Amino acid sequence: MATHDIRTQDRDGLARFLGWFSIGLGTAQVVMPRVMCRIVGADDGGLAPRVMRLMGARELAQGSGILTRPRPTGFVWSRVVGDALDLGALGLIARKGHKRTAFAIANVAAIAVPDYYEARHLSAKQGPPQSGKRIRKAVTIAKPRQEVEQAWADATELRQKVDEHGAQVSFLEAPGNRGTELAVEFTFDPPAGEFGVVAQKLTGSDLATQLADDLRRFKQLVETGEIVRSDSTPNGHLLADHLKQRAAQPLPENERERVNM
Amino acid sequence: MRATVWAGRNKVSVENVPDPQILNDRDAIVRVTTTNICGSDLHLLDGYVPTMQKGDILGHEFMGEVVEVGRGVGNLKVGDRVVVPFPIACGACNACARQQYSLCENSNPNARLAEKMFGHPTAGIFGYSHLTGGFAGGQAEYVRVPFADVGPLKVENTDLPDESLVMLADIFPTGFMGADFCDIKPGDVIAVWGAGPVGQFAASSAQLLGAERVIMIDRFDYRLRIGRENRGFETLNYEEVDSVPEALKELTGGRGPDACIDAVGMESHHHGALYAYDRVKQAMRQETERPFALREAIMSCRNGGIVSIMGVYGGLMDKFPIGALMNRGLTIRTGQCHVQRYMRPLLQRIEDGEIDPSYIVTHRLSLNDAPKGYDIFKHKQDGCLKVVMKP
Question: pLDDT digit string (tens) for A219-245?
Fold first, then answer.
């Protein structure tokens, strides 16, 4: 099963990393400001924890912005500005001469480099922002093209599901008598950006993975005439089932009706 | 029915579980008459192969009698005596067409897990973690066998005992493939790391394929003796030499063996600092392998020779001598055995009296004694080389 993500999305891997980094750091700052104060060598009483919590709120806003905007140029620049602010604040407490503060300064300086790089990179992008990711799933089925096309035409449920998401389907003769390459291509653009991606993965409704499973099952049906079932995965490839597998022993009588035979 | 289940790290128990049933038209149900404990079961036992779940039925070496067949199984009937190959293969995909049955593209319903781990998925295997499908295994009274029209080997010859035939389910073909990989030519010297069941059959097969000399390396004298006395191998106890590669050089006029077979795998043993390093890293789950035998096999092999890996590996290893491999032009060949390809020709060799694979059997137990069987096999107690069990 080949999956090919075509990188037309502006919110690239580095931007996503910076976004999640902001969420992680911000959460720590908001939830345990005193601990964070101690880590950077500041007082854990008085004004410092309150400032820390505000900075955490800022990080959370920046992270959410980066992870949900199709082209988060402004939010990444705001991280660069944030880095400068953090360095300034750390500079103020550095006079106390704590080693931890020096370490914190080094860390902020280290993250400032990719922040600046990504901000410049996004600023250079032209044209309308690209939010969706083109996803192409391909599978080789060891049967002649005509037979695969006929089977696809008969697979009403799968075809409807694919049509619903505006996917394009193509059939290509595989080289050297290897059968037929079936490819399905669609745009993956879940609501709420990267948060949507994670939510879909956790709930087992991730479209890309579902489609990959569907294609595997389709290949099994066309090549072998049946859906392959094991004791731990009696319904064959299904995303939701993979998250909570049974032990590998035969199904008891009362669970057998749950299997889609 | 009763079945041997994995009950957590280093724990197996025999429990009552539901009987299997036909789920697909191409399934058959086999009443197990003989089943073995395999060395790779030991890797599952201690949890070094990921994705084991409590309650998983173990066992992938078994044979028995067909008691039920699905509508799509035309070649078997109730009462047939069959040996079941451990990889499950559909017989219809491109991998099966190339006779690479252990790479069947369809038989693993957990292919996505395997794909994440290995890049591409591999075939389903009975009783061998969820990575290979989560199929219930054969150390039980009954087993459901998918694609029963492709895998099981029907044996009509009633003179041959189960003990000889059951070795066709895995280790005899596995050892044979390891030797087959070596492209053995007249005059070749083959070295085999490991005198366990797979090592015994790799070495025996190297003889069958015409090797001039076969040298078997292990540290357990009783295992080396079984090879020496039954098959006439030269043996080398690695605890009695300073360096195995040096010893092998001496034994081969300075050339090194023409091919080296690793029949040890991920939990190899060695005395020395590097062993301690690997043991600690593995115990901390920082690497999954303890690949001492493989490192040695690579360092020992003659220039331009072949290293055949039949020992099981699961994940990532450290300190892999890629420089020796590349600069000395070695070839690595490996894979889970494509059992279906070898069963018939090897049955023929057994029938022709070229070899009786039951020579490795040291323990005959009831299935109820499976925990004891695992224990003595793992700890190499009581002269244990191979445990066969009767349900």
Answer: 999 999 999 999 888 877 665 555 578
User: Residue A61: CB partners within 8 Å, gap ≥ 6?
Assistant: none
**In 3D, which of B210, B159, B198 has the Cα closest to residue B357?**
B198
A34 min Cα distance to partner chain B (Å): 33
Q: Nearest by CB to A230, which of B55, B106, B134?
A: B134
B146/chain A closest Cα distance in angstroms: 8
Question: DSSP labels for B231-299?
Answer: H--EEEEGGGSS-HHHHHHHHTTTS--SEEEE-S-TB---SSHHHHHHHHHHHTTS-S-B-HHHHHHHH
The domain locations on chain A are 10-123, 133-242
Cα distance from A98 to chain B (closest Cα, Å)? 34
Indicate yes or no: CB of A225 within 8 angstroms of CB of B21.
Answer: no
Residue from B177, B157, B179 nearest B341 by CA: B177
Residues in B touching A259 (Cβ below 8 Å): 23
* Phi–psi pair at B236, nearest 5 degrees: -140, 115
- Please judge whether B135 and A248 are an interchain contact, meaning their C-beta atoms are less than 8 angstroms apart: yes
- Nearest CA distance, B262 vs chain A (angstrom): 30
CA angle A58, A60, A65 (to 5 degrees): 95
Q: Which of B263, B229, B231, B226 is nearest to B362 (CA)?
A: B226
User: Are the beta carbons of A211 and A137 closer than 8 angstroms?
Assistant: yes
The top-level CATH class assigned to A133-242 is: alpha beta
Q: How far apart are CA A121 and CA A114, in angstroms?
A: 10
Cα separation, B383 vs B377, whole angstroms: 9
B119 contacts in chain A (CB < 8 Å): none
- Sign of the CA dihedral A53, A58, A63, A64? positive
Which residue from B minimizes the CA distance to A180?
A: B94
Nearest to A234 among B17, B23, B130 (CB): B23
Six token digits for residue B155: 């044996």
Question: Tell me, what's the pLDDT at B154?
Answer: 97
Give, to the nearest 10 degrees, the angle between helix B197-208 and helix B221-231.
Answer: 30
Q: What is the ipTM for the molecules in this complex?
A: 0.89
Please report the residues numbered 178 through 217 in chain A whose beta carbons come closer than 8 angstroms to any beta carbon of chain B: 178-179, 209, 212-213, 216
- Beta-carbon neighbour count of residue B231 at 10 Å? 18
User: For residue A1, what pLDDT band results from cuts at 50, 70 and 90?
Assistant: low
Residues, chain A:
261
CB distance B309 to B262 below 8 Å = yes
Residue B136 is nearest to which of A219, A225, A248, comparing CB atoms?
A: A248
B106 vs A224: CB contact, 8 Å cut-off? yes
Task: Return d(Cα B73, Cα B227) in angstroms, integer.
Answer: 40
Distance from CA of A118 to the nearest CA of B (A): 29
Q: Do B92 and A224 touch (CB under 8 A)?
A: yes
For A56, residues 6+ apart whose C-beta sits below 8 A from its C-beta are: A25, A26, A27, A28, A29, A30, A31, A33, A36
Confidence at A252, pLDDT banded by 50, 70, 90: confident
